[in-house]
Write a structure and sequence with these properties.
precorrin-2 dehydrogenase activity; five-stranded parallel β-sheet; oxidoreductase; Sirohaem_synthase_central; 209 residues; single chain; Rossmann fold; NAD; EC 1.3.1.76
Length: 209
């Protein structure tokens, strides 16, 4: 049966995440997960120097052992990232139906996979070909990076502050939508001096000029 994936932004703050494996693939998975403020446990007899350093700094927990079924019983999300297919299969078998599990070398058996993500501060753009072509995925991410330069990080922060101000201080629905639309217009972004331009926009739309 063809899989149809449902893309979501998942809040893992404080959630227990278990990564089985300590090699380069596991390291890459852990580095991505660290940004989510999840509680990360790595289970592996040996780990890369980078993962060992993270464990020493208490950024992750490292359980220095071979995988056993009980290692994932309390996990919200599981990543099987060893270089041994039989162990990855054991992880998959140990996972319960309610748990999220990703098997690095067998995406078809996983119930979720991680897309490539382009980030500019609060701006996150996820790209996936559902495993069909990781190379194309990376190519598209590179093209997106050229479309949204470093300025967008500050711009997104500015939009967040403006949106909070509008939602809290403008009660008229039509004017609220007008303001929200105006500040996301490309011509507004390119003018710069966003705070000053926003102040002028507020006065004009709210009839204070």
């Amino acid at each position: 049966m063809k899989k149809n994936y449902y893309p979501i932004m998942l809040d893992l703050t404080g959630k227990h995440v278990v990564v089985i494996g300590g090699g380069k693939v596991a390291e890459r998975k852990v580095k991505g997960l660290k940004e989510t403020n999840a509680k990360i446990t790595v289970v592996a007899p040996m780990v890369t120097p980078s993962l060992e350093q993270m464990a020493k700094q208490k950024e992750i927990q490292w359980i220095k052992k071979q995988f056993s079924l009980n290692d994932v019983k309390d996990a919200f999300l599981i990543v099987a990232a060893t270089d041994k297919r039989e162990i990855n299969k054991m992880v998959l078998k140990a996972a319960k139906p309610h748990q999220l599990v990703n098997v690095a070398d067998d995406p078809e058996k996983s119930n979720f996979h991680v897309p490539s993500v382009f980030r500019r501060g609060k701006l996150h753009i996820a790209v996936s070909t559902s495993g069909a072509s990781p190379i194309l995925t990376k190519k598209i991410c590179s093209e997106i990076a050229n479309m949204y330069d470093e300025q967008y990080e500050q711009y997104i922060d500015f939009l967040y502050e403006c949106r909070q101000h509008i939602l809290q201080n403008v009660s008229d629905h039509e004017k609220k939508q007008q303001l929200l639309q105006a500040i996301t217009d490309e011509s507004f972004r390119k003018r710069g001096n966003w705070e000053e331009e926003f102040s002028k926009l507020l006065k004009r739309v709210l009839g204070e000029l």
